[in-house]
Amino acid sequence: MQRSKFALGAALALVANAALGAERLEKDELQLGFIKLTDCAPLVMAKELGYFDDEGLSVRLEAQANWKILLDRVVAGELDGAHMLAGQPIGATIGIGTRAHVVTALSLDLNGNAITVSNDIWRRMKLADPKLAQPKPPHPIRADALRPIVEEWKANGAPLRMAMVFPVSTHNYELRYWLAAGGIHPGLYTNGDSTGTSGADVLLSVTPPPQMPPTLAQGTIQGYSVGEPWNQQAVFKGVGVPVVTDYEIWRNNPEKVFGVTAEWAAKHPETHIALVKALIRAGKWLDASLENRQQAVGVLARPEYVGADAEVIANSMTGTFEYEKGDRRELPDFNVFFRYHATFPYYSSAVWFLTQMRRWGQISEPKSDAWYDETARSVYKPEVWREAAKRLQAEGRLAASEIPDTNGYAPADTGFIDGIAYDGRTPNAYLRTLAIGQRD
Amino acid sequence: MGQMRFERLGLPVLAFAIFLGGWSLAASRVQTPIGALPGPGQVLSAARGLVEEHLAERARERAFALRMDDEREAALALGTPFRERHYAGRPTYFDQIATSLKTVFMGFLLASLVGVPLGIACGSSPALYTALNPLIQIFRPVSPLAWLPLVMILVSALYTSDEPLFEKSFVSSAITVALCSLWPTLVSTAQGVASIDRDHLNVARVLRLPWHVKVRKIVVPSALPWICSGLRLSLGVGWMVLIAAEMLAQNPGLGKFIWDMFQNGSSETLSQIVVAVFTIGGIGFLLDRSMLALQRALGRDAHAV
């Protein structure tokens, strides 16, 4: 009785809050998918902090075996939505791999990936470039240091093999960008070659993130491009050395998004807004303080979420990054969940991925600037984000300055490792400035 | 007498003790990138951890139910609309065991529903058996990992409904189990039926029994031991196949548990996988024993008739 009275008061307040929005929801029991990577943190924390509950949503999170299964299950309706690679909604909508109209109204994070090479390749890189042999070599390390090794292996008839996580993943484009900026050709996708290795100096292939360190240790691959904690895992277990982070390849690059099918979004508009609200709040919480990050590390380390050891996750989630064992550096923006308007789905982000799909031949024909714009608008839904942000602002949970003043395109960006500027409004002009790959 | 007891109880216990000793010795020496191979002690504590987790999850579920009750009362008091929500917890280790058992029985049921009648038909008609034999021989050795992608694609294309009774992952896993465990039942039943004493069948012919009566009164009882041993083999195959199917089909059972733990790559990973290995072995053993008991019970009945 005592419990009941006390709880009743709390529940009264809760119900009064929730009832306002909850009755509009088209669906309140949701199943969301994620891959075991630290950037699933907004989904996990929105659940654990009760932000989904605040919106009247009951959410079940389920780890998926790989990106392909995750996407197929969203398309088949078994999952309501999921943690996705930014390239997945775009790739699916234009028909690379599984074809389905998938949209996103929220970017989950910026940066968070790195490229790791095996201990043996790192040793050879240091032999080839004495600058790298000192205890704290100057960063960023460019792929030029890898080029002599690539050429040597190619001449021996056994080209270097590197892995990325999915054909339309940020990791694939970042790895390709880094290699190409160092004069190494990562290969083209053609109509007859769906593996993307035509004309390649280095053979790239797909490996699921958690299998990266074991595959590297087995010697099947000599390097990989992946999200955390799998680069820090390589340092920790002594199987490889991360040489460059994606923050150094492209400062504050968009990474994962929250994706749903266009059909689901049309059928559940209020539920979609409620989800985006909870996820924006979770992003803001994650970027609010170091204490929050440490708390998140503890939660992510649980076996049902990322499951890796807490100290491995903490390495990259708390503002530092360990390259070679002992070479730990400050990298405060390695994982960004909210700062720099990280959650806003910019059209320019979508267009960049489209330019890379064209550059590497996944899009087989040249396209007009107008096509890039239309495609970006059919996949990225900032209008849903704005509605969610407006409501959060009305609830006093978001400040006006946290809502970007933009027409959807970010200003021209010069934060790339090779210094080439990117402007999302002129994709064809941008493609012509890149040396390796298709240029129109 | 003492000699007998030692052989039946003492020897297995001794063998098990030697196994544990060898395991403990080996464990500390084998280093992997995610830590040393766990010894029996670590595996035991991992098992205990899984039980505690299960209890904690159930406690959270009860707390949620209480909160729902409070919210319902509060909504009633305020006159605001109330929407019941279900607890969005995660499946614990024991839930995963239950899912695996459900899936394997579903697959086993499907396999039996196809295997037994088809086996009886093949056994009764040598022509049909000759016709189907090449197909049976081709499909029998196919690995579940080859069927699974095909089944998954077909299930997601064909099994569509707004309020599905079963999860697609469950259906895919169960069908894969059925496809792989069908064959022992089919072949064994066919052999059993084909080897029925001619005299019995002649009696049926003389009495002009309709075919369904013949099957019920003569064919099934005579072939029952064969059918049962086929079913027992099928269930064993199904249980083995299931773990592989669950790993890829995302059916939340023991196979997915192992896959998730493997993906975690934490220092707990190895001991949790070993716990799962023992669980799978133990359950497989119990399934086999219960089929054997069933077989014996039915076998006596068959002789009694």
Compact description:
Chain A has 440 residues and is an alpha/beta fold. Chain A is 42% helix and 15% strand. In chain A, helix 14 runs antiparallel to helix 15 and helix 16 packs across helix 17.
Structure in words:
The complex is a heterodimer of chains A (about 450) and B (about 300). Chain A has helices at about 1-20, 40-50, 50-55, 65-75, 85-95, 120-130, 145-155, 170-180, 210-220, 230-235, 245-250, 260-265, 270-290, 290-300, 310-315, 345-360, 370-380, 380-395, 425-430; strands at about 30-35, 60-65, 80-85, 100-105, 110, 115-120, 160-165, 205, 225, 240-245, 255-260, 320, 330, 335. Chain A has about 450 residues and is of the alpha/beta class. Chain A folds into two domains: about 1-110 and about 255-345 and about 380-410, 3-Layer(aba) Sandwich (D-Maltodextrin-Binding Protein, domain 2), CATH 3.40.190.10; about 115-250, D-Maltodextrin-Binding Protein, domain 2 (3-Layer(aba) Sandwich), CATH 3.40.190. Chain A has a five-stranded mixed beta sheet with strand order 2-1-3-11-4, sandwiched between helices. Chain B has about 300 residues and is an all-alpha fold. Chain B has two domains: about 40-85, no CATH class; about 90-305, Orthogonal Bundle (MetI-like fold), CATH 1.10.3720.10. Chain B has ten helices and two strands; from the N terminus they run H-E-E-H-H-H-H-H-H-H-H-H. Chain B has helices at about 1-30, 40-80, 95-125, 125-140, 145-160, 170-195, 200-205, 210-250, 255-265, 270-305; strands at about 30, 35. A two-stranded antiparallel sheet of chain B has the order 1-2. Chain B is globular and about 75 Å long. The two termini of chain B are about 35 Å apart. The interface of A and B includes residues 8, 19 and 22 of A.
